Amino acid sequence: MSHDQNYYQSLERAIQKEQPDIIVISMDHYFNLGENQKLQPLNSWIKRDGFNLAAIAPAIVNSLTNEQGDIYGLTPTFNASALYINNTFFNEKGIPIPNDPLTWDQIFQLVKQFQHQDKEDKQYGLYTKYSENPYMMALHIGEGSGLSFFHARNKQFALNAKGWGNVFENVLNCVRTEVCFDLKSPEIKTTAKKEEAMKTSYQENHPFLIGNIAMAVDDSTLYSALTGNNSLFKDLDWTVLPYPTSADFPTTGNGINMEEIFAIPVGAQHPEEAWELAKYINGEDYGRIFTQINPGELPARKPASNEDSRLEVFYKLDKINNNMINTLRGFPDPVLAKMDQLSQTYMADMLDEKTTVRDALDQMQRELQATLDNSNH
């Protein structure tokens, strides 16, 4: 975690200096520029030309539309996460393979049934991209479950709010019992053979492909590896389910990311031409080409009924709430430094059961709030 106060300003300065007609930006830049009224609303063009927003995944349209109903950009593709299931593991344990979406709580209940007995041949219950950092893993899961660790409007931390204790308990139990995959584990073997080297490269990026993990929350690049390299991973019997959410917010999650949003800056010299380009790139034909160029990306337009039915799991969310990294990026340096220090200290104490989760979260809450209040003076 590092704070870069020029992260947004540098792009704003570049836009002001170069005055481009169209820009391609990530989600965090999109939201920042939109809030600062640096982008032109596309609504009038969309309405005039009958551009079909209904064909685009609801989560994407909802995310790109602000509270006033303005939409400032369009994206032809996105990256989405899902829950990957190792069917063999479930069958060996006599556990029915899930067919319906699971909540995070249900996943952590299932995880307990995959505690490994054999020290030589370790098996794991769960992998997420935050497995290496239990604190960030808890923040990510909490956010995806509809919780907020910080309220920007009143600048108050909320780590001790209802719900966070349960999230941290689940993560800590998973790590403590070593059922969560350890990224430092030696399962990935290096090799000189070309095909095996390619396989190893995939496994380094997506440990689920090693074959010793029951469930993995990973992105659509893993889906591409599984479906596009059947010869490499043909022995892996797998299922994919929608991204885990919470019982309270079943269609809201933080499993979607957009890196190529096309937007028209305020002050563009040729806005009409810029819109024509954005309309073409975000049209049905070009979107399909885009995903062929980058197979890990998914088309923003929902798949046709004759396509792989498994693709539908990536389009189940209606709303996106992945603000965690953006929130962290907005903190002053002293707050981030304090958070690093506190998370290491208290996560270790909670893992060793030297303190309760409730007491640790209360203490972290107080110290982080005090650091933030002092840094604002």
TrEMBL record:
Keywords: Coiled coil
Matches recorded under SUPFAM superfamilies: Periplasmic binding protein-like II
Signal peptide location: none
Any coiled-coil regions, as ranges: 347-374
This protein's name: Uncharacterized protein
PANTHER family noted in UniProt: ARABINOSE-BINDING PROTEIN-RELATED, DIACETYLCHITOBIOSE BINDING PROTEIN DASA
InterPro entries xref list: Bact_solute-bd_prot1, SBP
